[in-house]
Write a structure and sequence with these properties.
The complex is a heterodimer of chains A (356) and B (304). Chain A contains 13 helices and two strands. Chain A has 356 residues and is mainly alpha-helical. Chain A is globular and about 70 Å long. Chain B is mainly alpha-helical and 304 residues long. A two-stranded antiparallel ribbon of chain B has the order 1-2. Classes of the chains: A mainly alpha (356), B mainly alpha (304). Chains A and B meet through α5, α6, α11 and α13 of A and α4, α9 and α11 of B.
């Protein structure tokens, strides 16, 4: 086939490094069809998407703002997937954290921010972990597959948010479905003046470093990844598999919950239904693009945030619908999934035709 | 009572239709061992393409075909990723939902701009009223697709349980290695299952834009694909029970709309969330004994 042969063996290092680049190039070739359909020169569109946001300071800061929630959901999903636990529920867990933040945030009027903010983060983390608890227990106790249960709980969570916002939390003055504004003490400080970059970014980076350390530098992380690689072998080696899966699921839910806290306390100052722009699902893209490593997830989150910001530029400058960003992110996910297969092979020239 | 129950029943059938179609499509795919999390986006892009083609050509039939074709194409894409390449089924499926959703919204913005009034079809698919003039008329005033969906329940059941094709398809979903040894082409059958499933999902999307709404909006599918996935589990992967599940989900939604319209103070979100919770409880109770197709989520790699 094509005069090449694929051998099943670990790919050479240069190829591993090249895989994400190849995926990006293929993705942009594919979506150039859409920019042409929108009447824009693909090269001009790619300039707006990838380069232009990096040349202006305000846009660079926007990228950090956009990256904040998806670093957290990306780390959350990476952690769960690394343990072989397919948590599709980061979206719901994010909202669980957001509900907690919107609730605690209104109770801490009299506290100092030094207390109010850690308290909110803690409760948000616990809320996210609790929302992840049921599917995790079903998984370890009854061997119920987690993909569907975590996915369905996302829908349930949206109904809960809607019930809260249209019921007890409805704004009594304006009638808008939004929760009361959180206390000033609970609002995240800005990290950079005259920008929306908030304390949540620091939370995200600290969480990323901690989880990176946990996964790569501790026995716990080693065991967690062993379970993800081969559950039976891990069991055989005496690793308490169920315990690892449960820990990974709860940590993952908690971290996703922190993303919700950040969006409430750093961006909106109250809970609204459209708080998350599918950040939970984007976390799955981030984790996959990052090849289930934390440094990879960080880079991927920044790159996806760049594309989101770039899509805004492209829509302003070239009238390309802003949803181009969503299409690129999804295409990149699928292309990356496929190109990651190359990671398992070495390419060799061959003169013999491959037998079927 | 008559003014309440009969229209409620009629609304139940109407609201259940897209859920039922999606769930039947998902059932066929899962029976062959492929979980299709692309369903939510597939229904959306099908609703969109059906609407656009119907508007451009003035032919509802052309729109219907476009919707079916969209469903089939997206399922073929899932086939390439999850069957041929053997990638993670859930991540591939979610990727397809994200891609199809992005494409639908991109296309809608491109074609209709920021139109404040959503464009409507001049004429939506017609209703077919049976038993006109009898008290049962409100139950049997339905779109043609609703009757088709109901007819598809025994048809899919027959296909899965009474034909050699269905036997092979289920074998592929239960034990692909054994099926392969018995000379069944696992890949081909999974593709065929996806094609059938895609057409059904496409029909479900078409129902929303070409019949029920006669228009396209961003939120037209609004989680119905995820509902369909719950219904499949609830229905134990059997078409007849899937119908029961779809009617339950649809019925609670119809009830909720009615109660809201009559301003009955019920936290209606809880009514809507109820079937999801019931599904999770049902899975929990079935636990290990749940009749999941055994090879669901497992890519098949032919050795040698």
């Amino acid at each position: 086939m094509f005069g090449f042969k694929l051998d099943r063996a670990p790919a050479p290092l240069w190829m591993r490094a090249a895989i994400p680049l190849v995926a990006v190039v293929i993705t942009f070739v594919l979506v150039s069809v859409l920019t042409i359909a929108a009447g824009a020169n693909p090269l001009a569109a790619f300039f707006e998407l990838l380069i232009n946001p990096l040349t202006r300071n305000t846009a660079r800061l926007d990228i950090l703002v956009l990256a904040t929630p998806i670093i957290l959901t990306g780390v959350a999903v990476t952690l769960a997937f690394a343990c072989g636990y397919y948590n599709i529920g980061a979206e719901g867990q994010l909202y669980a954290g957001a509900i907690a933040a919107a609730w605690v945030g209104t109770l801490v009027e009299s506290l100092s921010p030094w207390l109010a903010i850690p308290l909110m983060l803690l409760v948000g983390f616990i809320a996210g972990a609790l929302w992840a608890l049921v599917p995790a227990l079903l998984k370890v106790r009854l061997k119920v597959d987690e993909v569907v249960t975590t996915l369905l709980l996302n829908s349930v969570m949206l109904f809960i948010v809607s019930a809260l916002l249209n019921g007890p939390w409805r704004d009594s003055e304006s009638g808008w479905p939004q929760s009361p504004t959180i206390a000033t003490a609970a609002q995240f400080p800005q990290l950079i003046e005259r920008s929306r970059v908030h304390f949540g970014l620091l939370v995200a980076l600290v969480a990323a470093v901690l989880i990176w350390w946990l996964l790569t530098r501790t026995r716990f992380g080693l065991e967690l990844r062993a379970v993800g690689k081969n559950r039976d072998a891990a069991q055989f080696l005496g690793i308490r598999v169920n315990r690892m899966v449960l820990s990974a699921a709860l940590l993952s839910g908690g971290i996703a919950g922190l993303a919700g806290v950040g969006e409430v306390a750093g961006m909106q100052y109250h809970l609204i239904e459209s708080l998350s722009n599918s950040f939970g699902y984007t976390g799955i893209i981030v984790a996959t693009l990052g090849a289930l490593t934390i440094p990879g997830a960080l880079l991927a989150a920044l790159f996806l945030a760049l594309i989101s910001r770039g899509a805004l530029s492209a829509s302003r400058e070239l009238s390309v619908p802003v949803y181009l960003g969503d299409v690129i992110q999804a295409t990149l996910l699928l292309v990356m999934l496929a190109t990651l297969l190359l990671d398992r092979y070495r390419i060799r020239r061959s003169d013999t035709p491959r037998s079927a | 009572m008559e003014d309440f129950l009969l229209p409620l029943l009629g609304a139940t059938f109407r609201i259940s239709t897209p859920i039922l179609l999606g769930a039947l499509g998902e059932t066929v795919a899962e029976r062959a061992g492929v979980l299709n999390l692309g369903i939510e986006g597939t229904m959306l892009l099908s609703a969109f393409s059906g609407f656009v083609v119907a508007q451009a050509t003035g032919s509802l039939l052309a729109g219907l075909l476009a919707a079916l074709l969209t469903g089939v194409l997206l399922n073929l894409l899932l086939g390439v990723l999850a069957v041929t390449l053997g990638l993670n089924q859930h991540v591939s499926g979610l990727g397809i939902t994200l891609l199809a959703t992005g494409l639908a919204l991109f296309g809608f913005r491109l074609l209709y701009g920021g139109a404040s009034v959503p464009p409507k079809l001049d004429e939506a698919l017609p209703q077919l009223t049976l038993l006109a003039g009898t008290p049962l008329e409100p139950v049997f005033s339905q779109y043609g697709i609703t009757y088709i969906a109901l007819l598809l329940v025994p048809i899919i059941g027959w296909l899965l349980y009474r034909t050699a094709f269905g036997l092979r398809l289920r074998a592929v979903g239960e034990n692909p290695e054994a099926a392969d040894t018995a000379g069944i082409n696992v890949y081909l059958l999974r593709y065929l299952a996806l094609i059938i499933g895609g057409a059904l999902m496409g029909l479900g999307g078409a129902f929303l834009s070409l019949a029920q709404l006669g228009a396209f909006t961003h939120g037209i599918v609004n989680g119905r694909g995820w509902v369909a996935i719950a219904v499949v589990i609830f229905g134990n992967w059997q078409p007849r029970k899937v119908l029961v599940g779809a009617l339950l989900f649809g019925g609670l939604q119809a009830l909720q709309l009615r109660l809201q319209a009559q301003q009955v103070p019920v936290p209606y979100e809880l009514l809507l969330a109820l079937p999801y919770l019931l599904t999770i409880v049902a899975i929990a109770f079935a636990g290990r004994n749940a009749s999941y197709p055994a090879a669901l989520l497992k890519p098949y790699k032919r050795e040698g």
